[in-house]
Every structure is written in C-alpha cells, then in structure tokens.
Amino acid sequence: MMTVKRLNRFMLLATAPFAGVLFWILLMNTQLLLTASDPKPLLSTTLSMQEKADEISVKLEDSEQMALNISQSMQKTIESYERITATVNDLYTTAAAQKDRPVLIYDQRITAKLGQRIGVITSPNIELELYPVKEKNYSGYAMKVHLKSADAMKMVLGKDQFGGSETTLQAVKRYGAIAGVNAGGFADSDGKRYPLSTTVLNGEYVSGFFPTYKDLFFVGINKALELVGGKFESREELDKQEPMFGASFVPILLKNGIQQEIPSKWLTSPKRAARTVIANYKHDRLLFVVVEGNDENGRTGATLPELQNYLSRLGVKDAYNLDGGGSTTLVWNGKVLNTPSDDGNLRPLATHFLFFK
C-alpha cells in the first residue's frame, strides 16, 4: 500500500518542473525591476510577467490536482489488487485442501485397519506409526512410514563395507537412526557376509547388476520416494525405475493388490518363521511388517500365505518378503521390539533399512 511519504515524494517530482519555471520567472522579474531605466516599459514588462506567472500558477494548481487524482487512482488500484490477491489465495487454499481430501480419507481408512496405534515418531522428514499385529497364529508389529524427504530413509551395508556385517541395532546406533529394519538376503564366503544378488546403494550398483533368476526379486526406494520392485531381466529395466537403494530376496507376495503364487520351496522351508515384509499403499506410504518367531524349527511365526491374506486385508498394493528367521529385526527408538529367533541373539546382517528424523 502507498505510504504518505511515497505520495509526497511523487508530488514533489511531479511539480518540480513547474516550480522551477516559476522561480526563474520571478527571478527575471526582479532583475528587470532593478535594471530598467524607463518606468513605462518596465511596468508593461512587469504586468506581462505577472500575467504569465498567474497563468503558470493556474497550471501548477491543475498539475497538483492531476497528481492528486493519479495518486488516488493508484491507491484504489493497489487496494483492488490486494483484495484480488487475498481472494486468489483463499481459492488456492480451498483447492489444495480439496485436492488432499481424498488422500486423507484413504489414509484414514487404511490406518483404521491396522488397529490401535501404540507409537508415533514425527518430524519434517518422516512420520512413523507403530501398530501391534495380533493374529490367530502369530503376532508382531506393523510400522507405517511416510517419507517426507530423501533424508528420511536409507539402506546401509554392514559396517559400511561390502562383505561386512553387523546387527540392525548396531547399524541404528552407529548412524543415529530412530528406527531400523533388516533388509535383503545374504551369502557367506571366506568369513564375509555379502548382499545377495542385485544391491543398490546411493544410486550405484554395489557389485553390478544380476538378471533375475529363480524366484529372486529386487526391491527398493527410488528418487521419487516410491517403492519399486519386481523381477528385472536387464539393467536398463531397473535403471528406468531410478532406484536410490534396494536389496534382493524371495518371494514376491503381492503385486498391484493381487496375491502372487508362492514357490513350493518357500511354503515349507520353513513353513512358519519370523518374517519381515516391505509393502506399500496406493498413495506411496510404506508398511513394514515384522512377525515374531521363537525358534528356527518352523513351529512358530507365520506362513507366507497367512501374510498374504493379512496384507490383502490391510489394502496393501505391493508386498515383498525380506530376509526372515534370525534376521528379522525391528528397532524402534533404540530398542529391539521383536524377540530374535536365533536363541535370543541378534544376527549380524549385510544390509539394513534405517529411518531418520
């Protein structure tokens, strides 16, 4: 809005030329009076100058009025602009709220299926919600994740070394993360523990690309903070997904909401076990399900078909089985929530998913 100071400055600039002309005329009039020898021509000249001065004075008054009119017009324009801007802002806010409304309704609906929330961690980077899993034959935890920035989640190698290993709790503490979940499978060789098959870290392939074989899949997070996964025959296929990080294991449980056929081997070896699952919803919220398993003999924990049915009830879109058994670990706020099935001991692993405030 135009201030009084700015208006005064405008008026000075507008009238300055006229004031200068008037001052010059008055100065000339004074000089003529002082130097003239003939009073008659001097009087005539003085009258002529006075008439011109009066004429200029009238024009100055007209200019001042014009400047005032312009100032008032500008003031009205500014006020009109401010009203229009406020109206547009209100419309934008209303439109944005309406745009997000379907997402909020969907999120409330899927969250209600998870039950009573028992924990929450929220920050500008991330929102984590913790729910209990209490099914007839198994129990555990579900962690719903909203990634708000690229700094909210990452995957790390054991001790940050290819072939290195450490427990998920150790990785969480070393990085100062707020939560952690075990990631992909591994293979042991010469006393080292290597990530299984295709592994991506910081957008780079850790040990190259491996075409899908048998029942292996790749799953990870891309640059758009979306869950990407599946079977990839070529590096070009996976490159198109722009993964930031990810790991490999078996098998795929759900794809586009449809339960996938589970290979017979994974139905019985073992039949029941501690499980870790990574999944997503239609609005790209993530879900990690960690199932308790008290031993490695296949007598406790969940079967993969049971998990498929559970995830389908939750309305999950895609779901991938991660390394389970003694590898299954969920760290929340510095504490391991599940009971490790390796005689209560945490297993050192090759890869971990970490979450940050």
TrEMBL record:
Q: Which UniProt keywords apply?
A: Glycosidase, Hydrolase
Q: Which parts of the sequence belong to the Phosphodiester glycosidase domain? A: 175-356
Parts forming coiled coils: none
Cite a single Pfam family from the UniProt record. NAGPA
Could you cite one Gene Ontology molecular function of this protein?
Answer: hydrolase activity, acting on glycosyl bonds
Q: State the superkingdom.
A: Bacteria
- In the UniProt record, does the keyword Hydrolase occur? yes
Q: Which InterPro entries match?
A: NAGPA
Hydrolase as a keyword of this entry, yes or no, is: yes
Q: Can you say what this protein is called?
A: Phosphodiester glycosidase family protein
